[in-house]
Fold this protein.
Amino acid sequence: MQPQPTTVTQTAHPWRATVRTVFAALVGALLVLPIVVSQLGVGGVPWVASAVAVIGAITRVLAMPAVNEWITEYVPWLAPTPRQP
């Protein structure tokens, strides 16, 4: 068994985590966004760009060390690594 890293990758490299999450959200949304945009009757590009910006911002906040510590303490199911005993 390998020792646990002292810093999780999201905290050590927050911008990489943000880019990975935005990329994953875009790939996952490619099938759904055209349907949502047409059903809501909203303009495609600004709405999609706003959604991607919000996803990136949330990911960046979640990667902050203080937020990561708070999540590990109070919302452990959302933490990148299990809480240490």
Remarks:
- Residues 44-62 form the longest helix (19 residues).
